[in-house]
Amino acid sequence: MSNIKCSGKAKLCQKIRNSNYPGFYKKVWLECLKIPRGHLSTYSEIAKNIGNPKSARAVGQALAKNPFAPEVPCHKVIRKNGKLGGYSKGIAKKIKLLKKELTKERKICKIPNSVDGKGVCSFEKKY
Predict the structure, then answer these.
(1) Which residues does the annotation mark as catalytic?
(2) In angstroms, rounded to a whole number, what is the distance separating the alpha carbons of residues 66 and 76?
(3) pLDDT tens digits, 34-93
(4) How many Cβ atoms sit within 10 Å of the Cβ of residue 90?
(5) For the domain that residue 60 is a member of, what is the CATH number?
(6) Number of domains into which the chain is organized
(7) Most buried in the list 32, 67, 105, 116, measured by CB within 10 Å?
(8) Is residue 109 assigned to a domain?
């Protein structure tokens, strides 16, 4: 796990690495730290990036247990079909965080106003 770089977030990275969570969870959370502001990723992309390309569902489970949210930006992870997926602090909070960040970065993403979680995001470039 030491090959994951944490420039600018050293204290948070150390906290994650020293936590008592499974190594897989730690890899997922550290990978999420690489998602730049105003960008999104998918559960599948995170799985691929940590070397477990068939573990998208397990990535979702790890993100559901993320005790470091929103500093570990699991709200930036969506389904590969563009739908929002879940969020440990509730879908309404995920929508609020995404709208705030994507508006600030002038990204175009159709985020729903309701909490039905059926908003669709498209993004040109993954991190």
Answers:
(1) 74
(2) 13
(3) 988 878 889 999 999 999 999 999 999 999 999 998 899 999 998 988 888 888 888 888
(4) 12
(5) 1.10.10.10
(6) 1
(7) 32
(8) no
Distance CA 79, CA 122 (A): 11
Q: Which domain holds residue 83?
A: 10-104
Question: Residue 41 in 3-state DSSP?
Answer: strand
Q: Which residues contact 86 (CB under 8 A, 6 or more apart)?
A: 60, 63, 64, 94, 117
Query: Does residue 124 lie within any of the structural domains?
Result: no
Residue 75 and residue 111: Cα distance in Å, rounded?
12
Reference 120, options 95, 70, 111; nearest CA is 111
77 within some domain = yes
Residue 100 domain-assigned (yes or no): yes
- The predicted model scores a pTM of 0.79
